[in-house]
Specification:
single chain, about 150 residues, alpha+beta, Aminopeptidase, 7-stranded mixed sheet
């Protein structure tokens, strides 16, 4: 089930739970990141989760969070699925919802994460540009993708 979370409903417990999903997901998909990189990103992710305009949460029937997506200015800024729930169509449901209801038009993907690149291509996005550095100035190339 997809739920949109308003800022007031983003309590500390929920944010910590989402941060845990982020970290588990990153460890299984972003193999190019070191422990130091992950530690440096953690506070930025928490800040992003707190302040992003649209935060969508995908939950199991029990209410347990399985994944989430953040959207800002018609752009997917974050999409992370708990490793145990990957491959179940959750990412596809979240992206489809964002395209259909939030008019999402773009996404940035780490070039070193070919799984994400392939997923977004499958969802209808094409690479339009490439940056050598990520938003923090690290040497992790970014692929800028736009919806066809």
């Amino acid at each position: 089930m997809i739920n949109s979370l308003s800022s007031p409903s983003r309590n500390v417990s929920l944010l910590q739970n989402l941060l845990h999903i982020w970290e588990e997901s990153v460890r299984s998909t972003h193999l190019f990141l070191s422990e130091k990189d992950i530690a440096a990103l953690r506070p930025l992710v928490l800040q992003g989760l707190s302040g992003i305009d649209q935060l969508l949460l995908y939950t199991a029937e029990s209410g347990a969070p399985l994944g989430f997506m953040g959207v800002q200015d018609h752009k997917i800024e974050m999409l992370f699925i708990s490793p145990g729930a990957m491959g179940q169509g959750i990412g596809k449901r979240l992206v489809t919802h964002a395209i259909d209801h939030l008019n999402v038009q773009s996404v940035d993907v780490n070039e070193q994460n070919p799984q994400a690149h392939g997923f977004y291509e499958h969802m209808g996005f094409d690479v339009t540009e490439r940056s050598e550095l990520d938003e923090q100035g690290n040497p992790f190339p970014i692929l800028h993708m736009k919806l066809r």
